[in-house]
């Protein structure tokens, strides 16, 4: 391998988050080839370890931004296991993060193992809503997140009918209702400012 090749590889590694893409492929590959498929109503779980790449400036616990990144992997895993993303794509649509809220309860110390659970908690015409939890092996929920996944070019009510358990929408959780009201207040302010 020549010097130029090494420089180009290093440059690509620096400007693109290569680890992110490798982890995406690995997470989706595990889901696709080694795990049983899940219903949309079933919870999925991935596991992680807080390493030196995940910690804050004091090198003691996971950086707040890393939580959001880890949620991506757990969400992709959920999508892969229940087949929802493939169905959205087959209907000519896509999925994009619309909003998220993370409540940090207690830090995840460096070199601690944890798991992230993901479950679908509600949906409306335009989005699905996921609840995700970071849980350490002592059983403590270290952080909890709710995310709004906007589904583009597809009516979500019709989409959900394609899945077992998707014919009847669950009751909207109170914390989700309040959060959505807060998002609407924020949206109204932004619309006035435009």
What key attributes describe this structure?
alpha+beta, five-stranded antiparallel beta sheet, 194 residues, 6 helices, globular, 26% strand
Give a structural overview.
Helix content is 42%, strand content 26%. It is an alpha+beta fold. A 5-stranded antiparallel β-sheet has the order 1-3-4-5-2, sandwiched between helices. A hairpin with a 3-residue loop joins strand 3 (113-123) and strand 4 (127-136). Helix 2 (18-34) packs parallel to helix 3. The radius of gyration is 19 Å and the shape is globular. The chain starts with a helix and ends with a helix. The mean pLDDT is 94.
Report how far apart the termini are. 54 Å
Largest sheet: 5 strands, antiparallel
Percentage of residues in DSSP E strands: 25-35%
Q: Please state the overall shape, judged from the principal axes of the Cα atoms.
A: globular
Multimerization status: single chain
Spatial strand arrangement across the major sheet: 1-3-4-5-2
Q: Bin the helical content.
A: 40-55%
Overall pLDDT: 94
Overall number of strands: 5
What string, H for helix and E for strand, traces the elements in order? Answer: HHEHHEEEEHH
Return Rg in Å.
19 Å
Q: From the helix content, strand content and strand pairing, which structural class follows?
A: alpha+beta
Runs in which pLDDT lies below 50 for 5 or more consecutive residues are none
Question: If helices are DSSP runs of H or I spanning 4 or more residues, what is the number of helices?
Answer: 6
């Amino acid at each position: 391998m020549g010097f130029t090749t090494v420089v180009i590889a290093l440059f690509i590694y620096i400007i693109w988050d290569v680890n992110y893409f490798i982890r995406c492929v690995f997470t989706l590959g595990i889901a696709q080839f080694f795990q049983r498929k899940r219903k949309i109503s079933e919870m999925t779980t991935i596991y992680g370890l807080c390493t030196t790449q995940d910690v804050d400036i004091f090198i003691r616990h996971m950086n707040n931004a890393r939580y959001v990144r880890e949620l991506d992997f757990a969400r992709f895993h959920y999508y892969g296991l229940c087949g929802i993303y493939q169905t959205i794509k087959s209907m000519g649509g896509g999925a994009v993060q619309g909003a998220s809220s993370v409540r940090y309860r207690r830090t995840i110390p460096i070199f601690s193992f944890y798991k992230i659970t993901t479950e679908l908690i509600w949906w409306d015409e335009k989005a699905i809503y996921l609840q995700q939890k970071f849980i350490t092996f002592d059983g403590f929920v270290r952080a909890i997140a709710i995310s709004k996944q906007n589904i583009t070019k597809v009516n979500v009510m019709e989409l959900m009918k394609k899945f077992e358990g998707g014919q009847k929408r669950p009751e909207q959780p109170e914390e989700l209702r309040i959060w959505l009201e807060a998002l609407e207040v924020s949206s109204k302010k932004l619309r006035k400012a435009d």
